[in-house]
Each structure stands twice: as structure tokens, then as C-alpha cells.
Amino acid sequence: MKKMLIILLIIAFLTPATAYAQNSDQSSSQGDVSGGEAYNPDYNVLPIALALIMLYLISYLLYDSKILRKVRYKQIWSIVLVGSMLISGITGIILVLITDYGVRFNLNFNLLFWHVETGIIMAVVLFFHIHIHRNKFKRILKA
């Protein structure tokens, strides 16, 4: 039953992802305004979140089917969390050096974009981390 639910969730996440991909060109050119602020198509919150959720559900399905060991399952998502934190943290420090101290780096890419993108990854994977370690969190919150 659990496997069927996970497969249905994966299918449910695929549907809005394809609709988003089809409509992203139209909405970015129209300049939609909602809530007084213009939509910023530069950051990919929805595609990143949906892709990570699908990957997590697939890895959980592999773990639940005993194809993936529990240790490896935890390691994968811990590495993603730590990697995104490191990239987001390092780019954040570089951004602080640039804005507050006027330090200049010869960089050919948008540092703020990658800082935000890895921050989105980190925020989504944080919920996976809480799910993986939910029993430990329950014990901590009870104390």
C-alpha cells in the first residue's frame, strides 16, 4: 500500500511540473503581477522543489523495497544537505565581502543566483532530513 501511495505521489508531482514547464515561457514574457510584486522568473523554486521531492520519493521507495540500505539512504540526503549548505554559505560569505567591504572577485557568473538556488535546495532537503530523523526529533521535543 505504501509503495502504491509513493508511486501515486510521484505521478501527482509530475503533472504540475509539466504544466509549469509549458507555461513558464508565457508567464515570464507577460510580466504577471500578483500581490503588488512582479513575478521573478530568475529563481526556479517550483522545478527544484518538485524534482527533489520526486527524487526523495524514489529513494524512499528503493529504501522501503530493501534495494537501498538505510545507511546509504541517509548518507545520500545528508550529503545533499551538507553540500547545499556549503555552497550557499560560501557564496553568502563572498556576497558579504563584495557588498560590505568592496572586495572584488573576477567571477563570470551570477553569485546571488547560485546562492538562492542552493538555499532553495537546502530548505527543501531540510524537510527530508526531519522526515528521516523524525524519531530523534520526537525524543528531543518530548524532553
Give a written overview of the molecule.
The protein is an all-alpha fold. 78% of the residues lie in helices and 3% in strands. The chain contains 5 helices and 2 strands. The protein has helices at 2-30, 45-64, 70-101, 111-132, 134-142; strands at residues 33-34, 37-38. A two-stranded antiparallel sheet has the order 1-2. Helix 3 (70-101) runs antiparallel to helix 4. The relative contact order is 0.11.
Give the CA-CA distance, first to last residue: 34 Å
What general outline do the C-alpha atoms trace? elongated
Low-confidence stretches: 26-36
Cα Rg: 19 Å
Give the class from helix and strand content and strand pairing: mainly alpha
Strand content: under 5%
Tally of extended strands?
2
Helix count from the secondary structure assignment: 5
Q: How much helical structure, as a percent, in the residues?
A: over 70%
How are the secondary structure elements laid out?
Blueprint: H1 2-30, E1 33-34, E2 37-38, H2 45-64, H3 70-101, H4 111-132, H5 134-142
Antiparallel strand pairs: 1-2
Concise overview:
The protein has 143 residues and is an all-alpha fold. It has helices at residues 2-30, 45-64, 70-101, 111-132, 134-142, and strands at 33-34, 37-38.
Features:
about 140 residues, mainly alpha, two-stranded antiparallel sheet, 5 helices, 2 strands, about 80% helix, about 5% strand, elongated
